[in-house]
Amino acid sequence: MSESRQAGDGPDGRRAPAPRTPSQRPGRSAHSRPAAVLVLAGLVLLQVLGMAAVALWYGIALVSSPAASFGGAVFTLVLLLAIAGWQAVSAVALSRGRRWARAAVLVWQFFLFAIAVPTLTGGFWGWALLLGLPALAIIALLFRRDVVAFTTPGPAAG
User: Fold this and answer.
1) Distance between CA 157 and CA 111 in Å, rounded?
2) Phi-psi bin for 63: left (phi > 0), alpha (psi -120 to 50), beta?
3) 97 in the Ramachandran plot: left (φ > 0), alpha (ψ -120 to 50) or beta?
4) Is the Cβ–Cβ distance between 144 and 38 less than 8 Å?
5) Kindly report the CA angle at 62 between 60 and 67, in degrees rounded to 5?
6) Residues of the chain with pLDDT > 70: what percent?
7) Are 120 and 136 in contact (CB under 8 A)?
8) Angle at 12 between CA 9 and CA 17, to 5 degrees
9) pLDDT of residue 156
10) How far apart are CA 153 and CA 99, in angstroms?
11) Rounded CA gap, 27 and 155, in Å?
């Protein structure tokens, strides 16, 4: 019996499956994406819009009135824009099932909550609730079983 196995054939003579790309992994199609992931990405994008609005307001204030430290003010503006951009990237990556995005979003929620608590104790209830409640909702959604399963890679093929 002649063995005419080709490269990529398994030990039983069957063709080994081709490696899958991240979008071809089980559980990664748009049809199997949990609704909680879309809600989560939407909430993060709303936070991005809020951060962009704060950056716009800060930029207008920077141009219209002199800052005590112009360099520090420009740094703060760039930091606000960078945070908004990074969170936008994280929201898109989260909706695509990337595991690292959960950590990036979680860290930002902790920062927001850390700002919301002293804001609340300072008597600014509206701002505290605007920062803290979405952060708590996002943290809860990040740890839902279906969200964790969607963003956890399956076993490697091969």
Assistant:
1) 38
2) alpha
3) left
4) no
5) 160
6) 78
7) no
8) 40
9) 59
10) 8
11) 12
At residue 128, what is the residue type?
Answer: A
What is the pTM assigned to this prediction? Answer: 0.74
Q: What is the mean pLDDT of each run of 10 residues along the chain (158 residues)?
A: 52 57 49 89 95 93 88 93 96 95 95 92 91 94 95 72
What is the residue type of 103?
A
Give me 84's structure tokens: 């908004």
Give me the amino acid identity at 153.
Answer: P
Quickly count: other Cβ atoms within 10 Å of residue 23's Cβ.
Answer: 10
Task: State how far the Cα of 100 lies from the Cα of 145, in Å rounded to an integer.
Answer: 16
Amino acid at 49: L
Q: Both tokens of residue 28?
A: 């990664």
Q: Which DSSP helix (H) or strand (E) runs through 19?
A: none
What the block records as the tokens of 23 is 């979008």
Q: What pLDDT does 17 receive? A: 55
> Which residue is it, tokens 């989260």?
94
Number of neighbours of residue 18 by Cβ within 10 angstroms: 10
> Could you tell me the CA-to-CA distances from 79 to 59, 73, 89, 132 in Å, in that order?
12, 10, 15, 21
